[in-house]
Amino acid sequence: xxxxxxxGIFDDVLLGxxxxxxxxxVLVGIGSGLVGAGYLLVLxxxxxxxxxxxxxxxxxxxxxxxxxLFAGLVTRFVGSPGDVxxxxxxxxxxxxxxxxxxxxxxxxxxxxxxxxxGAMGPEAPLVQTxxxxxxxxxxxxxxxxREARVLTIAGMAAGFTVLFxxxxxxxxxxxxxxxxxxxQYYEALLPSVLGSLAGYAVYVVVTGAGLHxxxxxxxxxxxxxxxxxxxxxxxxxxxxxxxxxxxLSTGLRFVARRVRPELRPLIGGLVLAALGLASxxxxxxxxxxxxxxxxxxxxxxxxxxLAAFAKLLGTSVTLSSEWRGGxxxxxxFMGACLGRAFHVVAPGTDEAVMVAACMAAANAGVTKTPxxxxxxxxxxxxxxxxxxxxLASVVSFVLTSEVGLIHTQRNRDVVGNN
Length: 418
Known about the structure:
Elements: H1 9-13, H2 19-50, H3 59-77, H4 84-94, H5 103-115, H6 123-140, H7 145-164, H8 167-176, H9 189-207, H10 225-256, H11 264-278, H12 287-295, H13 301-320, H14 328-345, H15 351-367, H16 372-381, H17 386-399
Helix pairs in contact: 2-5, 2-6, 2-7, 2-9, 3-5, 3-11, 5-6, 6-7, 7-8, 7-9, 8-9, 8-16, 10-13, 10-14, 10-15, 10-17, 11-13, 12-14, 13-14, 14-15, 15-16, 15-17, 16-17
C-alpha cells in the first residue's frame, strides 16, 4: 500500500516528501533539542571542575594528561568514537550515520576532552550524536536510503542549531558540510530547516535560553560600498587561516600516526598543557574567549596575532592527537582575532564587518560551507552583516577550493543510490 503523501503546494515545496518522513523529522528535531540540552548541561557541570580557570600551572599536566590517558583507554577497550569524516562518508554511501555503538565512547571522551580545556568544541560530538540518533530512527522505521539521508541531515541540523542558535544557518551548514562544492542534497533543505527549528524550539523552552545574539557586535546602521572591498580582503585573510590550519593539522596527524593509537591522546594532553603555560588562548575551544577578544580595548596587531596563533596550535594539536571535539568555534575565534587585527591596521574599516567576515571566511575555507558559515555567523551576530560575511566566505571558498581537511566530502554522483 503506497504511503500517504502531502498534496498541493506543500507537496511541491517539500519535493514529494511523505507525511511519515516529515513527522519523523519533527520527532528527531524535538529529540535532538532534548539530547542537546542534556549534553550541554553535563558539559557545563564538568567545566566547573575541570575548566582551565579551576587550575594553574603544572596541575594542567596531570589533568590534561589524565584525560588523554582516559581517552586512549576508552578507545582501546570500548571502541572507536568515530569522527565527522566517517559520518560524512556513511551518509553518502548508505544515507545513515554509523551506529549508536560509537556513542558509548564518543560521549564520555568528548565531555572530558572539552571540559578540561581541549581546544575543540562540542559541535562535532553533538552533531555526531544527533545524526546517529536520527539514523537509528530511520532504520527502526525502515526508511529507504534517500529518506534516511534526509532524516539524518535533519538530525545534524538540529544538533548544530542547539549549539549555534542559528536555525537557518545550521540547516544549510549541515547540508554543505557533506560536499566540497556546495549544497547538493537539495531535497533535504526544507526538512533540514524543519528539524532545525523543532530542535531549537525545544532547546529554548527546556533551557530558557533567550533569542538574543551570541556574539556582541555593534552592527552598522548601514553598509558602505567600501565595506564590500574590505569584506573581499577579509575573505583572503580567512583563506590564509584555513590553509594554515589545514596543513598544520595534516602535518601533525602525519607525525601522530607514528605513535601507538592509545598513546596519542595522552601525548596530546601533555603537549596542550605545555602550550597552556605559554598562552591561555591555546586552551579551550574559544567561545568565551571570543567575547573577551571583542571586548579587549587597545589591543595591538601583535596581541591578536599571537592569540590566533596560540589557538591555531592548540586546535591542531587537539585534532591530530585524537581528542574529540569540533573546530568550527576555534576557527571563529581565529577569524575574530584576524578581524580585530585588520581594524587596528586600517582604522577606517567597520570593526563589526571585519570581525564577522573573517570569522565566516576562516570557517568556510576549512569546512567548505560558503552559505552555511555566513548564515551562522550573521544569525549569531545580527543579520545586518550577512552581505559582507557572504562575500568573504565565497572569496575564501574559491581560494581554498583545492585544499581540504574533511577528505570524505564529495559530489553526490560519486556513488550510486543517491
